[in-house]
Write a structure and sequence with these properties.
By secondary structure, this protein is mainly α. It folds into four domains: 4-74 and 183-229, Rossmann fold (3-Layer(aba) Sandwich), CATH 3.40.50; 81-174, Glutamyl-tRNA Synthetase, Domain 3 (Glutamyl-tRNA Synthetase, domain 3, Alpha-Beta Complex), CATH 3.90.800.10; 316-370, Helicase, Ruva Protein, domain 3 (Orthogonal Bundle), CATH 1.10.8; 379-466, Arc Repressor Mutant, subunit A. 47% of the residues lie in helices and 11% in strands. The strands form five sheets. A three-stranded parallel sheet has the order 1-2-3, with helices on one face. The chain has a three-stranded antiparallel sheet with strand order 4-5-8. Helix 3 packs across helix 5 and helix 15 packs across helix 16. The longest helix has 16 residues, at 17-32.
Amino acid sequence: MSTVTRFAPSPTGLLHIGGARTALFNWLFAKKHGGKFILRIDDTDRERSTEEATAAILSGLQWLGIRWDDGPFYQHQLLARHMAVAQEMLAKGLAYKCFATQDDLTAMRAAAVAANRPPRYDGRWRDRPESDAPAGAPYVIRLKAPQNGETVIEDMILGSVTFRNAELDDFILLRADGSPTYMLSTVVDDHDLGVTHVIRGNEHLPNAARQLQLIRALGWAEPTYAHIPLIHGVDGTKLSKRHGAVGVEYYRDMGFLPDAMCDYLMRLGWAPGAEHPHLTKDQAAPLFDLSHVSKGPARFDLDALTSANFHFIKEAEPAYLADVARPFFEKELSRSLSDAERDLLVKALPGLKERAKTLPHLAESGAFYFRSRPIPMEEAAQALLDIDAKERLRLVRAKLGELADWSHDPIAAAIKAAVGELGVKFPAVGLPLRAALTGRTNSPGVADVLDLLGRDEALARLDEALS
């Protein structure tokens, strides 16, 4: 049987870190086994589901590069099928009408709490005839769940997990208004879409026991379950807004690369081995193994994510990096880059990306290439341009002005010749030269900077610093 996985978020908010990891694990598992990854939007809660949240989920997945093979399916469009299954179960005696009122349910909960028992429906309408209910009374349809024995989940991560059936109640399939519940809709859609493996957060583990009861009542093929541990903050508590942003779009806007985000997310619970310090998701797919996912919670560490981002920025192709970094350069400069400037950025990136941890950091360190004169000058850079330094730069300016070939090697040779004539060490020339050209104390090599700025701009900046 071909492997089919699915990611089924509820569109009630942004694509959070835990959801992104769940989607990634489903994608990796499907690719590992040559299967199919499906996207389904579980939007049966029409009051809380929004188009904005749906768009944010789709955008977040697309940014991460997690492409679905089928879908997106929208659960609310499949309600007629869900309702038909419930009615079929009712007709077969696998479910029943429950006429318990809200007062009845409140009393049940109060009695359970008083007896120190978990609040559960007590099955009072399980075997009663409908004639006992008042004419026209509203009702829900409940599963006639097994009352004895156990429901065992053979989980690919957690192993065998056992639930006593006596602790599981007859849960609702259809509400009083005829709408299906999450439990029913999920089971029906997973079956109809041919889902073979349900990989999701372990907060859904209790749902799995109930869903298995429903699947077995219907006589359908059972999916294999894998419940992923929660993600905690650095303080060991469940990741939440108080730990900072939990939506992936925040990290996109903060200048993290999607490869870095995927690399880090897949390591929140899965260990590919020390021989693989960093992996793209395509590199990781052949190695992915749910049996190597930790049973304990993972901890989200921004420093570790930043370290991964540092790696992937260094490894990125300049043309790709220029395109993803361009908006950050434009924000830094408060203007758009021309296509010619974008081409210059591609050429400049090999010298810039070695030090950058995020895209804003990259833009901040490389914006000097695109500044208009007079370029802004850091205080420490201005301090390097004292009278003695300017005298040394005048010789450098003269030798550079004589060059017929404005390219890296002749430029470097001219600077070296000036250093030799002055009888000083290179920093005595290189540091003020860098300051004059960039307004900064850190930059790529000065010969590279001069080459990329071009003859006219480079000499104009030197003249301005010397004036």
